[in-house]
Amino acid sequence: MTSDTHAAIWAKLENAKPQTLEQLFAQDDNRLAKLSQRIEFQIPDHGTNGMLLDWSKTHLDDALLDTFEELTDAAGFDAAREALFSGGIINPTEGRPATHGAMRGSGTEGDVEEGNALLARMGMLVNAIHDGALGEVKHLIHIGIGGSALGPDLAVDALTRDLQLVDVHVVSNIDGLALEQAFAGCDPATTLIAVASKTFTTTETMTNASSALKWLSENGVTDPSGRVIALTANPEKAVEWGVDETRILPFPESVGGRYSLWSSIGFPVALAVGMEDFTAMLAGAHAIDKHFRESAGRANGPLLAAYADQYYSRIRGCQTRAVFAYDERLALLPDYLQQLEMESNGKSVTAEGEPVNGETAAITWGGVGTDAQHAVFQLLHQGTRLVPVDFIASIAPGDELDPAHHKALLTNCFAQGAALMAGGNMSADGKDPARAFPGDRPSATFLVDDLDAAMLGALIAFHEHRTFANAVLMGINPFDQFGVELGKKMAKDIDSGEGQFDPSTSALMKAAGLV
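Request: output the structure for the sequence above.
Response:
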């Protein structure tokens, strides 16, 4: 894509005359059909599941979509997508492919074979633990940070509401309170420690891991290292650290941290719910891979989502995007998406190293409905900032209580989207400005049939591909994260007493007794 072509297409988008949501529905009787789609998939032994995606309450229209499809072609989207699945160097700054899809069966034959072999190895260990090969195991403390913790934490929390084969505690924070809290919930004699680190050198993770070994030793475990499972792309480092080779679960170097749930980083999920459900999660993700790979333009769900993201971020100047899951099982989804989207696309240069001509990633935030309605929705309805919203809900309830609970949950979810769009005035005479709602505020809805393991995998994969599609449209590399490294380096400089710091930082170090 030439810079002139890119600029011309963006100028066309920026010059489009905005219309209200009410006008868009009034002008097109087929709007709902055009901007909603159902993605359905069938998983062996798990039946048919699907999700309805409704983008009709966004400001996308035929003209905008036509122009975004021009941008898609000009950005070389088809070639970039093929490179993603065919093992091409899609991460140019680090000279790597991004093969996380191969872990769920989407990639080159060789990458898929490697992924299957690594997951089979993990499955054998998981099943052996469940069968008692390592003695009685009631608890797992999973230690990681970033993608090594956020994905497992989300999946374990979502999938263990009914059954948990092993009690899993995910610890990421270097704050010792987090680790102590995990210790308090575990019996050392029946606890395993999973250490998840791509390099097996991450400071926070390895510090927590050392403290966990000390805790085991001080509480009567005679061979603490024998209770450790290493999840890493650097098995040699794990052996050097003292982990037995039979308890190291490798994953490829080309699988990035925030895309690593599908690899051995998913070990705590498999241990908690069993390999069958973990495999179903992979299968749900694979179904979305297939949809993303085979669908074109606006018929491609993740790409259509990216069109909306780009419209609101770049054209309408929205700095944030909110995600509200009307399902307690997805309470950690906004946290997961924050890293996925903001670490991937929080860049200011293109893949060629040139300044990006426009805004990149919006700030992702959110919460759980209906709690959020009594906290942040005031700003969404009456505040001065325009915030596009995603709603996520399940037709099937996650509880066995009176159906009135789930009916009220869905009613609130749908009502919020309708209210954001419609607006109005709730005063008796319709004139009180304090009770006025401007309306014309956009939202999209993900309505899933049921939130099982396969659907969780599908939802996560959908957002992975949405993130990738956004990156291609912006011309950036979503697979590096050098912004994370600077703070790490400076923390090491403080710890070692090296480096020169500004007066404020130096004073804080002195006040805290670090120097």
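Residues 125 and 246 are 9 Å apart (CA to CA).
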